[in-house]
Amino acid sequence: MIIDSNIYWLPDELFTSKEFANMFIRTVPREYGIFAYKKITSNGKIQFTIEKPEGFESLNYFEGDYDLSTQLRDMDDANIDAAILKLPGCQEWLDLDLCIQFNDGMAKRMKESNGKMKALAVVPPIGDEDTLNELDRCINELHMHGVQLSAHYGGKYLDDPIFRPLLEHINELNIPVYVHHTPVPVEYNSIAEYNNLRRSYGRCMDQTIAIGRELFSGMFEELPNLKLIHSMLGGGFFTFANSWFPNKSGNGRFNADTDKIKNQYLKHNIYFEMSHAQPWGKAQLQCAVEVLGADKIIYGSSYPVKTEWLTGGPSFVQQLNISQKEKELILYKNAQRIYGIAD
Questions:
Q1: Model confidence pLDDT, tens digit, residues 227-277
Q2: Euclidean distance between the first and the last CA atom of the chain, given in angstroms as a whole number
Q3: In sequence order, what are the residues at sequence separation of 6 or more whose Cβ sits closer than 8 angstroms to the Cβ of residue 17?
Q4: CATH number of the domain at 3-11+66-339, please?
């Protein structure tokens, strides 16, 4: 069995309804330096471009990429048994009205796929009564498998007290949270002008900063049931994991009292979704398994960013020099356990 835990979805109405498209663009917070544009490509298709900062592309949404029949066919070509749907970055700024429409659309997609596609709820990050009610509806009535959040909103990461009401409710529901990277971290000026640096390393920076703040803030002491699944392997967190938890303080230079952070919070509250296999490379993925443990890593492809990440991803994982048990944990068993997906 193979579960792809990172397949993107957007509603058809975004590309077919001018009114819906305008509603979507109006929610993009230009006051935070995020800009959205709709245009027609050379082949006559609609494309939405998201820039942050202005003049620098960070996200692109193309008409046709989210067609159900195409996605199901590509999943069959890759021998994917189930997929977990999520939004491609725009969850950062959607208001509640649009979240409700997106949630209804994802629930419809689950039914149209005959259960092959699962979905994660999307809600604004401020946990007022209406937002919490919508999350309850998604879990209890629409039968979604968790909720998706952004690594940060505006200038605030998830450890900020402003998000605590929502996280407290999630903790009570005991549902998993997929933490999607935002295209760049809060401070991004040093990487903005270089496209590959911004669009690849920027996402990784955002995730490692987010995880560090979550771990060192002590938030999991108040939220012990919270399971945060970070994209992009936590921004390559495995490369920094040991150095963040020194055994000795270096004459007071570091806080050496990190046993609880490493052995409890990191072990029970933080997980890592791959986002794509091939770009990491075999050596890096094998290192991630050795450092983090196969029980902490969840397979995903970020499809439809690149179709070959979907169709060739599982076979790439199968070629790793790790045990078959570890491969099964990564390819489906971890997702089954954490997201509550039946055989």
A1: 999 999 999 999 998 888 877 666 667 776 788 898 899 999 999 999 999
A2: 8
A3: none
A4: 3.20.20.140
> What's 303's DSSP letter?
B
pLDDT in tens, 51-65: 999 999 999 999 999
pTM: 0.95
**Contact predicate 50/58, CB 8 Å:** yes
CA distance 70 to 64: 9
Q: At what angle do helices 96-112 and 18-27 cross, to 10 degrees?
A: 130
- Asked if residue 86 lies in contact with residue 148, where contact means CB atoms within 8 angstroms, the answer is yes
β-partners of residue 310 are none
Q: Where are the domains of the chain?
A: 3-11+66-339
**Tokens 């975004």, residue located:** 14
Contact 296, 273 (CB under 8 A): no
Which amino acid appears at position 315 of this protein? S
Q: How far is residue 138's CA from residue 203's CA, in Å, rounded to a whole number?
A: 28
Q: In angstroms, rounded to a whole number, what is the distance separating the alpha carbons of residues 235 and 231? A: 7
Q: How far apart are CA 85 and CA 106, in angstroms?
A: 8
Question: Is the CB of residue 70 less than 8 Å from the CB of residue 64?
Answer: yes
